[in-house]
Amino acid sequence: MFRSKLKTVTLALSVTLMAISLISFPQESVDASIRGLNMWWEIVFPSLLPFFIVSEMLIGFGVVKFIGVLLEPLMRPLFKVPGVGGFVWAMGMASGYPAGAKLTARLRQEGQLTKTEAERLVSFTNCSNPLFIFGAVSVGFFNNAKLGVILALAHYLGNITVGLLMRFYGRNPKKLSREEKKARPSLRAALSALHRTRINDNRPIGKLLGDAVMSSIQTLLMIGGFIILFSVINKLLFHLGITAILAKGIEVVLALFHLPVELSIPFISGLFEITLGSQMTSQVQQATLMHQVVITSFILAFSGFSVQAQVASILAQTDINFKPFFFARIIHGFTASFYAFILWNPIYERFYNTEQPSNAIPVGFFGDYSLFGKMLDGLATAGPLITLLALTVYTYVLARRLDRN
Q1: What is the DSSP letter of 362?
Q2: Which structural domain range is residue 382 located in?
Q3: Which of 37, 60, 139, 349 is the most exposed place for a label (fewest CB within 10 A)?
Q4: Nearest to 125 by CA among 144, 143, 101
Q5: What's the N-to-C CA distance of the chain in angstroms?
Q6: For residue 173, what pLDDT is reported?
Q7: Residue 65 contacts residue 85 (beta carbons within 8 Å)
Q8: Has residue 11 been placed in a domain?
Q9: Is residue 282 assigned to a domain?
Q10: Tens-digit pLDDT profile for residues 14-39
Q11: Rounded to two decimals, what is the model's pTM?
């Protein structure tokens, strides 16, 4: 009872403090809101919308079930999740946060995952996509796209490590028989599962497509709200001096790992929002490039409270517990930083570190006109148009459905 009352008072005081801060720093709050809105408007919405819509349709047509049957002999022994987890994992890496959580929640609602399996799966299928790592962080912030190789390797190796560790989480409701353990991928069984799933979901194609668009845009609107909110919170914490206070404690930890204490404030900012934290880390002149990469790897893996709040909101629609996901983010942060540290000399120093200064963008595949650079520039240019078009379609479909009801 006391803990419940304490929680109520804490939440009320926090919201009141935020309201007072918004009034005290109106211009800073507006600037932070615009920054968050631009990020969602130009990058997040247009990059995630196609993945979300296609994923919903793949689930409805039974393709995910088909993939799940084929990948069952791989995913079950490694991560103790059904074969459909392979689809979630691949889509999570391709599209980025929080696609893994959305697909895991969707499959849980479909009954294709148990509660424990869903908690294992969501812990390692939420990660940054290659476009963000290479385009936004490496090229945009560090002006050195070759760093994307180290950041990506550390990020995804840490992700795999989390998946292997989380296989020990929870108890299995049933033990697999000897025949199930020795089962091999069967194309016939996969095709049969695909057909059964499509028959059971008897929605017409138009209805399925409309549901996919509606569900995807509703999720992205929620994501946009969280991005704007945490962008403002991060800015207010900085102006209130709370970030500096928290940084004092982080300085002690950084000193233990022989990292520059000047990285403490970027680290704190990254705990709330990964984009701002990564950008601030790249601007710390007192740190070496390796130190910056180690901290950035932690920030990308931890994914920030902004992304975690998005995941918590998605998981709240199911019975999936959020705590294992949060615990996995801490593990991912440390493992990604560790991999970045041990891979720095054998990979970056040996193959990529030239006499070129670190603030110069190298020529070639990762150069000025690299694939990732072109994709990021194109997304930023066409992103607002795609967002407007999608929101227009969403408004039209929603109005039609309200008229019918």
Answers
A1: P
A2: 27-404
A3: 349
A4: 101
A5: 44
A6: 55
A7: no
A8: no
A9: yes
A10: 899 989 999 999 999 999 999 888 88
A11: 0.82
pLDDT in tens, 266-314: 999 899 988 888 888 999 988 899 999 999 999 999 999 999 999 999 9
Q: How confident is the model at residue 248 (pLDDT cuts 50, 70, 90)?
A: confident
Distance set, CA 339 to CA 152, 162, 226, 294, 301 (Å): 10, 13, 30, 9, 12
Distances from the Cα of 294 to the Cαs of 221, 259, 284, 340, in angstroms?
A: 32, 9, 13, 6
Which residue shows structure tokens 């668009």? 213
Asked if residue 237 belongs to a domain, the reply is yes
Query: What pLDDT, on the 0 to 100 scale, is given for residue 1?
Result: 73
Number of domains making up the chain: 1
Which one-letter amino acid corresponds to residue 153? Answer: L
pLDDT surpassing 60 at residue 177 = no
Cα dist. 226→44, 277, 306 in Å? 12, 16, 6
**Helices 289-302 and 274-282: angle between axes, nearest 10 degrees:** 180
| Residue 17 is assigned to a structural domain of this protein | no
Q: What is the token pair recorded at 131? A: 């476009």
- The amino acid at residue 350 is R
Average pLDDT over the chain, rounded to whole? Answer: 84
* Residue given tokens 């070639």 in the structure block: 364
